[in-house]
Amino acid sequence: MLLAGCGAPSAPAAAGQVTELRVALAPLASTLPAHVAAAEGIFERNGLRVTITEGNDLPGFTAALDQGRYDIVLSVPTIVLVAADHGIDVQVVSRLSRSTSAHPGTVWITRDPGIASVGQLRGARIGVPALTGQLTDSLVYLLQRAGVPRDQVTFVQTPFATMPDQLEAGRLDAAVAGAPFSTAMAARGFRLHEDVVVAAVLDATGGAVNDGMTSLFASSARFTREHPDAVRAWRASLEEAVAQLSRDENAIRDQYRAWLKMPPEVAAGSPLPTWELDIAPRDLEPYVTISKSVGSIGREPDVTTLVWQDHP
User: Fold this and answer.
1) Domain boundary among 209, 238, 260
2) pTM: predicted TM-score of the whole model, two decimal places
């Protein structure tokens, strides 16, 4: 955890003032810009004093956001939509990373190399990091589109790190994971298939959108309304960190080893993230289609209110 003070945020930075910002995120390749911005003083140069809490419970981050414990949290579209469906005040302040077919993020993986399509997973035991959420919803959507109802597969909540051994032992037939875990599974002979989020979005949009939003940062509409300068400074800091990292691939892999504790050989072979910070309300629409189709949300949200739109 990077500590720089707690408590409620101050007024937006002006005339040398500093804004306190409490942030929760998971230590992932996609969140490297936030880590670098904190470690190298980028936030401070933009008038922010940021406290970063690291963890892996993204739904818990959103609940804590609603309770006022954080100002900005790491999230994904599905969590934002489910939170809004339950009446939680949540608003996306920036996209963070994207995946494509050419540069996949989280893929589905099979023990049997003869399996070539999602429709062949009927009756399978599938390891997933959580029984709900974007990855599971995306795979459920793809299964349904292939004619396989959810109750004809068994989802098993499995930590990414144990998925290779569970596949090897035959306790799982398939799994959903991203790098570096998918890279390790490929090295052990398991078959990697397409990115589940990209494939679901492609289907949900009739082929119009061919990338997946794999992570984002969210706040509350109340916070963005009361502290717009802090949101601008946050985004400017991320943009500076992304530009810095994008100029030096070795710096990214150094962070893989130092911050994410990857072994050198894994860090050297892991794919690099594709960062993208800009987001428009329409970018959430494919995830609304997916979430409604699998029953994660019950009503159509107003996506224009779910995305912060800067009005200086």
Assistant:
1) 209
2) 0.88
